[in-house]
């Protein structure tokens, strides 16, 4: 009988690089999509400050508005805007992929789910703008 | 199923927050963060805003706008730290920071909006 | 079109290499040649020691998956001419231990696949002479997922799998869905118990690259999101009706 020693093959295990998200464009796009959440959080903070400023009177609100006009804040918000739009677009497109809606036994194509998302986006943005800008 | 896992709950908050952020944050940033400060559009006055904010529906709206997106951030940021920086061993710390931050922000929003005379 | 192309092939011999290196070969560049043809040419004419797996050379057996210029590919369905003028870099599938050259150890995937219980589970089997009828719509519900050939390209594309060995991974979840959505199956709860655990599905961050690289349009990324939705619905049900359901 042959020696029944179990054969354990030696193998090479590559470690995933900490910078794996730089190795391919698709991964970088993914990480940017995730990082968009930081800008989401940032603008929630701005909104909280805004609520406080509005509720504590015209003087405080004027101060808050001046703060928003500083170059640093404008730059930050321009970048945030870019990221949040990126979030919105990727979110709507991905949710179309994640959801299965069947009509009469056939799966609706992604566009049929994404389109209403975009429509809702337009309506919501329009409503907010209208309320703030009218009168 | 594994009833102790709270991932489904966190995922629900994450998804709801993702929808709210996608639908509403771009226009908020565009107006309050860029168009008004740059003077492209006339900013609404403080009187108008306070008048708006006193309405319960606006308060509910602002509460949603502040709380859910923070949980969305918490979820994504947690995984970005896990996978992007490979620091999953700091799990507890990360959870406290991310979800703790979201809870504090939510509490702050509730406090601010509740205390409007 | 130049008539030769350079191929850099990852080489690793467990007995005398610490880590993989590259060997460079020049092979004829023919219009109808795929990367696998080039590897076979190397093995037949240039270097008989090169090891790699393949079988069907027509995209159905799923054994020839490798990394071609950084992207997971079925080498029997990837044309050399798409990479002209070269060089083309061929490496083993990422995220799996390398046994030798282009051959990887797939055990982890096979264990995970087994945990998904990818077979039809019945509470009570019908007698042998009775059929399980299915309408075209019922077939359509899971057909896409049943196309999987276990090639593991999706695992190689998934950074989360590379980082978190507990994550079930794309194909195992897509195949769980394949049976969950089958009208003849009654095992959805058993699979949910296993997959909805902490790292089973929740580690997925929807990078989506698994779906991009899948040669069979299985869309594992979509399957995982749908599975998260199912798990969340079940979680809510368990919350509202702690004893009911199941
Ligand atoms: S899901 Fe696609 S990529 Fe993954 S193993 Fe199956 S066929 Fe291959
Ligand atoms: S050799 Fe069978 S899939 Fe490529």
Number of domains of chain B: 1
| Oligomeric description of these chains | heterotrimer
Order of strands side by side in the largest beta sheet of chain C? 2-1-5-3-4
Strand/helix succession of chain C: EEHEEEEEHHHHHHHH
Largest sheet of chain C: 5 strands, mixed
From the coordinates shown, what is the CATH architecture of chain B?
A: Up-down Bundle
| Number of E strands of chain C | 7
Number of helices of chain B: 4
Give a written overview of the molecule:
The complex is a heterotrimer of chains A (135), B (117) and C (246). Chain A is mainly α. Chain A is 70% helix and 3% strand. Chain A has a domain at 11-82: 3 helical TM bundles of succinate and fumarate reductases, CATH 1.20.1300. In chain A, strand 1 (102-103) and strand 2 (106-107) form a beta hairpin. The radius of gyration of chain A is 25 Å and the shape is flat. The termini of chain A are far apart. The mean pLDDT of chain A is 88. By secondary structure, chain B is mostly helical. Chain B has a single domain, classed as Fumarate reductase/succinate dehydrogenase, transmembrane subunit (3 helical TM bundles of succinate and fumarate reductases). With 246 residues, chain C is of the alpha+beta class. Chain C is built from 9 helices and 7 strands; from the N terminus they run E-E-H-E-E-E-E-E-H-H-H-H-H-H-H-H. Chain C has helices spanning 35-46, 107-115, 136-146, 153-157, 159-163, 170-180, 188-195, 209-213, 220-240, and strands at 4-11, 21-28, 65-68, 71-74, 88-91, 98-100, 103-104. In chain C, the strands form 2 sheets. Chain C has a 5-stranded mixed β-sheet. The longest helix of chain C has 21 residues, at 220-240. Chains in contact: A-B, A-C, B-C. At the A-B interface, helix 1, helix 2, helix 3 and helix 4 of A face helix 1, helix 2, helix 3 and helix 4 of B. The structure holds iron/sulfur cluster and FE2/S2 (inorganic) cluster. The site of iron/sulfur cluster has 15 residues of chain C, from helix 4 and helix 6.
């Amino acid at each position: 009988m042959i020696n029944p020693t179990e054969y354990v093959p030696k193998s090479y295990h590559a470690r995933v690089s900490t910078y794996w998200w730089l190795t391919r464009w698709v991964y970088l796009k993914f990480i940017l999509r995730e990082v968009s959440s930081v800008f989401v959080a940032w603008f929630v903070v701005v909104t909280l400050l805004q609520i406080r400023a509005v509720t504590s009177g015209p003087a405080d609100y004027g101060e808050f508005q001046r703060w928003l006009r500083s170059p640093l804040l404008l730059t930050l918000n321009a970048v945030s805007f870019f990221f949040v739009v990126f979030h919105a677009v990727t979110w709507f497109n991905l949710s179309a992929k994640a959801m299965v809606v069947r009509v009469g036994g056939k799966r609706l194509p992604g566009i049929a789910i994404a389109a209403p998302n975009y429509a809702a986006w337009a309506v919501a943005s329009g409503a907010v703008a209208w309320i703030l800008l009218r009168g | 199923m594994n009833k102790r896992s709270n991932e489904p709950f966190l995922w629900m908050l994450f998804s709801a927050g993702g929808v709210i952020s996608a639908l509403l944050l771009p226009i908020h940033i565009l107006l309050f963060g860029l168009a008004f400060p740059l003077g492209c559009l006339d900013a609404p006055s403080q009187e108008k805003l306070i008048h708006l904010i006193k309405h319960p529906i606006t308060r509910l709206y602002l509460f949603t706008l502040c709380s859910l997106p923070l949980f969305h951030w918490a979820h994504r940021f947690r995984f970005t730290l896990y996978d992007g920086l490979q620091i999953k061993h700091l799990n507890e710390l990360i959870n406290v920071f991310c979800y703790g931050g979201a809870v504090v922000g939510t509490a702050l929003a509730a406090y601010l909006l509740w205390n409007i005379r | 079109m130049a008539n030769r192309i350079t191929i850099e092939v990852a080489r690793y011999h467990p007995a005398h290499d610490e880590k993989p290196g590259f060997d460079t070969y020049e092979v004829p560049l023919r219009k109808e040649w795929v990367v696998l043809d080039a590897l076979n040419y190397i093995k037949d004419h240039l270097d008989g020691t090169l090891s790699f797996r393949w079988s069907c050379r027509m995209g159905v057996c799923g054994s020839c998956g490798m990394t071609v210029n950084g992207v997971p590919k079925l080498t029997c369905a990837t044309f050399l001419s798409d990479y002209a003028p070269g060089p083309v870099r061929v490496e083993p599938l990422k995220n799996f231990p390398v046994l030798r050259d282009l051959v990887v150890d797939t055990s982890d995937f096979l264990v995970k696949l087994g945990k998904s219980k990818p077979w039809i589970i019945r509470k009570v089997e019908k007698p042998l002479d009775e059929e399980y009828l299915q309408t075209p719509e019922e077939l359509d519900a899971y057909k896409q997922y049943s196309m999987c050939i276990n090639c593991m390209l999706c695992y190689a594309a998934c950074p989360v799998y590379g980082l978190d060995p507990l994550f079930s991974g794309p194909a195992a979840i897509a195949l769980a869905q394949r049976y969950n959505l089958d009208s003849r199956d009654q095992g959805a709860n058993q699979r949910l118990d296993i997959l909805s655990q902490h790292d089973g599905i929740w580690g997925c961050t929807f990078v989506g690259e698994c779906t991009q690289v899948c040669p069979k349009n299985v869309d594992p990324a979509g399957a995982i999101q749908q599975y998260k939705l199912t798990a969340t619905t079940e979680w809510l049900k368990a919350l509202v009706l702690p004893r009911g359901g199941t």
